[in-house]
Amino acid sequence: MPVRDDEILRLTKYAQGLGLKVKFLTRSRKSPAAEWTLDGTEITVYTNSSTTKIDIILSLIHELGHHVWFIHEKNRQPDLKFEEAIERQNLHESELSDTPAPKALRKKILNTEIAGTQWWDVIYRDTNCKFPKWRLEANKEFDIWVYNVYYLTGHFPSKKEGRAKFKEIKRKYK
Would you list the domain boundaries of the chain? Predict the structure, then answer.
């Protein structure tokens, strides 16, 4: 079995060991790369023809980071403020509301994203990932940047801004 397929399998088994169901679905234009249910039961990874195996691995690690944080720091108890923040974010993204979530709720999302990234290195080690560690660090920095932009502006960066920032971050780590 190729190395990346083996890593995906190990991450999936790791998720199942934590009580998660992992689904892989076809990605639509508006769907995220992956998502974790707020009740801590499922991770869905969305893929399309341009999704690489490293993209899948990094998406799994990202969502697993949320779940491990949920287990160790929240004792599997729902965070109602975080749920409210996500609902407001989703409402705004669906264009049913012109008003972004209040800044305090956006800060809650940013803090939760940062908390999840703190577990990425543990997951990387626990699942014996072999891809270059700089990829993990670059994705961590990019992810925090994206949510910091959202916190400050109420809007996620455009794809063009995101590509430019990721190129800048990659140059730093390579």
Answer: 3-173
Cβ neighbourhood burial of 45 (10 Å; 0-12, 13-18, 19+): buried
Give strand pairing partners of 42: 21
Task: Confirm if 143 and 113 have CB atoms less than 8 A apart.
Answer: yes
Residue range 152-173, pLDDT digits in tens: 999 899 999 999 999 999 999 8
Are the C-beta atoms of 33 and 43 separated by less than 8 Å? Answer: no
**Residue 21's beta-bridge partner residues?**
42
- Which tokens go with 113? 């994203």
What is the C-alpha R_g of the chain? 16
- Residues 75-78: contacts with CB under 8 Å, at least 24 apart: 76/40, 78/38, 78/39
Residues 6 or more apart whose Cβ sits within 8 Å of residue 119: 64, 65, 68, 69, 72
Query: For 28-39, how does the pLDDT look when each residue is reduced to its tens digit (9 = 90+)?
Result: 877 789 999 888
Q: Report the amino acid identity of residue 107.
A: K
Strand-pair category, 42-47 with 34-36: antiparallel
What are the structure tokens assigned to 123, written together? 């997951």
